[in-house]
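Protein: SET domain-containing protein
Species: Austropuccinia psidii MF-1
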Amino acid sequence: MLTAPSASRRIGRSAEPCNTSDLGRWLADNGGSFHPSLSFSAPNEDKSSESNLMGTCVLASGPVDKNQVLVSCTIQTAITRQSSLDKIERLFNQIPMDKPGPNPCQNFTSAWLDRQVISLYLILTKLSIKAESLQSNPLQELVKHDETPARRLVFDLFSFHKLYVSLLPPLQELTTPLFWNEAEVEKLRFTDLYPSIMERKQLWTTEYEEMMENIRRMSSVLYDYMSRYLSCGDYLWACTIITSRSFSSSLLENLNIPKVSSQTTLQKPNSIANLDLNTSSKEPTPILLPGVDTLNHKRGTKVEWRLTKSHSGLHKVQIIALEDTINLGDQVFNNYGAKPTAELILGYGFALDEQDWMAQNSQDADILNPDDFYTIKLAKPQESKVYSPLIKSICDRFKHKTFYHFITKVQPIPPMLLAQLRVLVTSSQEEVDKLTQCLGDLLKAQTSSKTFTENFLTSMPPKLTWDNELNCLDCLRSMLDFKLEELNRINHFSDQESDWKQVRNSVKRMIQIYRQGQHDILFNALERLESLISLATEQAVADGFAISFDED
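Structure follows.
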């Protein structure tokens, strides 16, 4: 699920049928299945495909018709917050505690995010795999040395998903930026993605350190065992597995539930909690669906998710093929929905190249990912630097996140961005009077920030004054010029070996796709802005507004 390789590939001798693979047999033993015409492609079989180095894919070893089930798994095999907590709670209740007390698990994990809980479950399952390997180790002194209550409990409690976890990509094969080298990450400097990488790495590292410190205070036995075999890298691995392979629980809330037989129709559960996917809140939560997560992503792929109930009473999640036919040798895809390149790189470790979306619309020759955007953040002005207290009053009604604006190919100049800028560059009493006239009632109303924001745009006029409008457009042009100049400080298409010798080819391509997309968005926005400036200047002159042009 970490890659988006080429759509078609020859089936080689080393390809393994999904349904007879270790994972396929485990799924079948637990009520799930793969379509019999699906095969796992050997990771190194097609060395001409660089994307193949980034992970295994699923190919069609025979034709797959429309409406056939590609893969399914039972809800009982899903990894959720609640299923993870159940095992973690049993571990904490049985492990020797330095300071015994009631509900150790609840005290330990109550404030945790779902990702943290599932990550702990995954790394404890890795420890269970390690315990099993030690058990079969011929060096008996190692086993004797490691024969602790922690090892026995972890081995007993976290064995159900051992096969699934053992087949997940190991840390050294992950291609998200958290696992890039310093030279590779440096190539993203001066982009929005660079600080996101730094923040995520710091956040997850801090989470791991706090988790281990809390375990140390609670149970030295468990801490000693975990610290002997785990590192922060294992926690980063687990978190990355979740961001790259998990699905949202909200996806299952609205699944199509077809008839089990001609006489019986399943009723959709009122809550996903009824399917043992209990969550700590009504917010969507990440869930891991073994087997279902093996299909890679391709934008526009036609699939349907269904929730069914078998005669034995097991609920299943199914992915149904909606393509007319999947031919022999075609890669079989899932569709994660609209994903900008930054999210694909940060969360999944790949980027979609132009052929991945151009194939859907042959008339569109643009190589820009339609889901990409560039973020522009406006700064809230300091009270001492605003022309009028009214400006601060207006800005205070906005939540922090509403000062973030997303420039896209379809909407290069967001209307809300221009409307807020008109307020921020206000510099005359005439402009203040216009703002008071159009926003006075809205400001007086005791409404929420959300309601104010929703009504702000419709209450603002297309312009306050020509002076304000031209200042606003010029301010935005300076902002976009600076962003583009900063982005171009690194030549991402340089062929000089010295520039890229420490950057892997697959990572280099991700960087190029992302930076080129950001460049194209900014360039397109500046072109659109120049048109707006020309039109505004022409209308202002026709209106009798005197414009003084700089000599240079």
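Remarks: Residues 505-542 form the longest helix (38 residues).
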